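Hey, I'm writing a tutorial for new members on how sequence and structure tokens pair up, and I'd like a real worked example in the thread rather than a made-up one. If someone can provide the structure for the chain below, I'll link this post from the tutorial.
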Amino acid sequence: MSFAFDYNTQRNHLIIPEYGRYVQRMVELCMEEEDKEKRTRMARAIVQTIGKLNPQLRSNENSDRTFWDHMHVMAGFALDVDSPYPVPTAEGLKSKPQPVAYPKTTIRFGHYGKLVERMIEQCAAMEEGPEKAAFTLMIANQMKKQFLTWNRDSVGDGAILKDLADLGKGELKLEPEQQLASTDALLQAQRNGPKNAVDPVRKRHKNNSGGGGNKKRYRNRNKKRY
């Protein structure tokens, strides 16, 4: 007595394995339907099934179009239905996007970065006044912070001011009363970061709970007296 076993290796190749063989079989049955109107209804049901198998894609704006494209791919681009979107082609899917042009700009000081250079350029174009002086001090502190990211030992304020004047082409200078932030303060801020910041709500709640505990102990002492 012999049995005819049905192995996956003997079945049709799964075009999109993530959807499984049942979905692909649904697409094959849809292609076998001769009535186009019924075939379109079957295609819409398949798209809904694909959407349920991929709920994470529902948040995307073009999720419906993606599901329709996947169905056409599983049909070998030979499914004739009234699709709400243009039917993709095999050539279009194989085409590669154009390479994105990388900005060819030179950075004079890599440890400061390009954004600092843009900040200096815009600040140098400002009119003289308190606002420009405040921005100059902010940029100088940012430069010192960026420098300490690469060299955590120490950095002299003179080196920062020299680089500031060099990048600003002599247009940016600190006022005599302006002082850069200390190295220890900048390093401490980098070590703390936003994760170690104290939550004022949690701190206030902790203080309140401590006070409630003191009141409870005070009431217990009074009960023992009487």
